[in-house]
Amino acid sequence: MSNLNFKILAKEDKSRTGEITINNKTIKTPGFMPVATRGAIKSTPHTFLDNTDVLLANTYHLYLRPGVDVINELGGIHKFMSWDKVILTDSGGFQAWSLPTKIDNEGVVFKNIYDGSSFKMTPEISIKSQNKIGSDIAMIFDCLIDIKDSKEKQINSINLTRDWGSITKSFHKNKDQALFGIVQGGLHKDLRELSTKYMVDQEYDGYALGGLAIGETNIERKNIVKFTSELLPDEKPKYVMGLGDMHGLVDLIEEGIDLFDCVWPARLARHGKLIVGNTYINIKNKQYENDPEPISNVCTCFTCQNYSKAFLRHLIHNENTTAWLYLTIHNLIQTEIILDEARKSILESTFSTFRKQFEYE
Amino acid sequence: MSNLNFKILAKEDKSRTGEITINNKTIKTPGFMPVATRGAIKSTPHTFLDNTDVLLANTYHLYLRPGVDVINELGGIHKFMSWDKVILTDSGGFQAWSLPTKIDNEGVVFKNIYDGSSFKMTPEISIKSQNKIGSDIAMIFDCLIDIKDSKEKQINSINLTRDWGSITKSFHKNKDQALFGIVQGGLHKDLRELSTKYMVDQEYDGYALGGLAIGETNIERKNIVKFTSELLPDEKPKYVMGLGDMHGLVDLIEEGIDLFDCVWPARLARHGKLIVGNTYINIKNKQYENDPEPISNVCTCFTCQNYSKAFLRHLIHNENTTAWLYLTIHNLIQTEIILDEARKSILESTFSTFRKQFEYE
Question: What is the ipTM metric for this complex?
Answer without folding.
Answer: 0.96
